[in-house]
Design goal:
Elements (H helix, E strand, L loop, with lengths): L10 H20 L11 H11 L8 H10 L7 H10 L4 H13 L3 H23 L3 H17 L2 H18 L3 H12 L21 H16 L5 H12 L19 H15 L1 H7 L3 H17 L4 H11 L1 H13 L3 H20 L22 H18 L6
Length: 399
């Protein structure tokens, strides 16, 4: 018998998290002798095997699988691909991406493995370029933002292009940065919101300016002051286009002292206390610090627009994967390092195992290599039975 909620559904993901933590510990040992070698690819290999061979896991495969099966291949000609894009509901870049892989082999599991392989390779490049521990960054990716890999296939492709474009931003090369982000926008239009980062995100802002700003934002959040939503509501009403954006006003985030709020607050305090040390450890660190600060600020002031807050948070989630390893491994004060490690690991494992995380039947893990994976029809029946109940019960924004 299958249950709607069960801790058992979380066990495969928790085991993956533990394996990545062990590899992160070993990587710290390896880095003392060498920064090169195949051993640094182990975490990427584990990641690829776990996600590349997954079955119909999560939520959004129910949209992507039919879209893939109905899509024309490139052998059907460019006009067929273009017509399918116009008739469909997904961006042109992702439609072309699907058609390209389908031209090689018309098989969903082949497509899923190859698209995951691309994800893994670019994530590895990104982590190797900016993180102090590759395996720990992979751990944070699955513990904090698992849905990005499992459900958000279009978003992730656009985000991966942005991660590659960060180098151009840091080198102050506007043209290649803009072109890369625009191509990312062809996979998911939300990626275009990252274009303006070029003009302000890589600057150093003094803590004496940041602290009062965030004290004010925390007061707004904790006192449940509704500020931004009504202003946007008024602006859209004046422009006569409010109806098109009504969905963004329908759901507010759960406010108050939640586990997520405490984790973000502790991370903010650590960043402010060791601001100078962070800048010395990594030359591009101010970019990632400012990305995290923007994430936290949006979380605080956009609580009455949870959909907007969540989508902006998704775009800026990369900041945790780079910033947190430095706080976890390199804080100069052992007491603070130990305290932050407890906070970070506790939040990661709680978030990963919650019913709103992997503890529901939608995330019941299947692997193609196991030989007894549930097929599309079986998983489709499960989603039709349980999806609405889980969505109603899940209070998004509670973390």
């Amino acid at each position: 018998m299958l249950f709607k909620y069960s801790f058992g559904y979380s066990i495969p993901y928790l085991l993956l998290a533990v394996i990545l933590l062990i590899l992160a510990w070993r990587e710290q040992q390896w880095r003392k002798s060498s920064l090169n070698g195949l051993k640094f690819y182990l975490s990427a290999l584990v990641f690829l095997i776990f996600f590349g061979f997954r079955g119909f896991v999560g939520w959004d495969w129910r949209s992507y699988y039919p879209y893939f099966m109905d899509a024309p291949s490139l052998w059907d000609g460019p006009f067929a691909v273009w017509k399918y894009f116009q008739e469909g509901r997904m961006e042109p870049g992702f439609t072309l991406w699907i058609s390209g892989w389908k031209s090689i082999w018309n098989n969903w599991h082949f497509f899923l493995f190859m698209t995951t392989a691309v994800d893994t390779e670019i994530l590895f490049i990104f982590f190797r370029r900016y993180s102090c521990n590759i395996a720990f960054s992979f751990f944070l990716f699955i513990a904090l933002h698992l849905a990005i890999e499992i459900d958000l296939l279009r978003n992730l492709k656009g985000l991966l292009l942005f991660y590659l474009a960060i180098r151009f931003l840091l080198e102050r090369r506007l043209l290649p940065y803009s072109i890369t982000v625009l191509i990312g926008g062809c996979f998911h239009y939300s990626i275009l919101a990252l274009l303006p980062l070029y003009f302000f995100i890589d600057r150093e802002y003094p803590p004496k300016l940041l602290i009062p700003l965030f004290v004010f934002a925390n007061i707004l959040y904790l006192c449940k002051v509704v500020l931004i939503g009504p202003l946007i509501f008024l602006l859209l009403t004046k422009l006569g286009i409010f109806g098109e954006y009504l969905i963004y006003f329908e759901k507010s985030m759960v406010r108050g002292i939640t586990a997520g709020y405490l984790f973000y607050l502790v991370t903010f305090l650590m960043v402010m206390m060791f601001y100078r040390e962070l800048l010395q450890w990594n030359n591009p660190m101010k970019f990632f610090i400012n990305s995290f600060l923007l994430y936290f600020f949006c979380y605080l002031v956009l609580a009455d627009l949870s959909i907007v807050s969540n989508r902006l948070g998704l775009l800026l989630s990369y900041s945790f994967w780079i910033l947190c390893p430095y706080l976890f491994f390199r804080l100069p004060e052992k007491l603070f390092r130990f305290g932050y490690a407890l906070c970070l690991l506790g939040f990661c494992f709680i978030k990963l195992s919650l019913p709103s995380g992997t503890g529901n039947i939608m995330y019941r893990y299947d692997n193609l290599l196991s030989g007894n994976m549930m097929d599309y029809e079986e998983r489709d029946d499960i989603q039709r039975i349980y999806a609405w109940e889980i969505q109603v019960e899940d209070k998004s924004g509670s973390n």
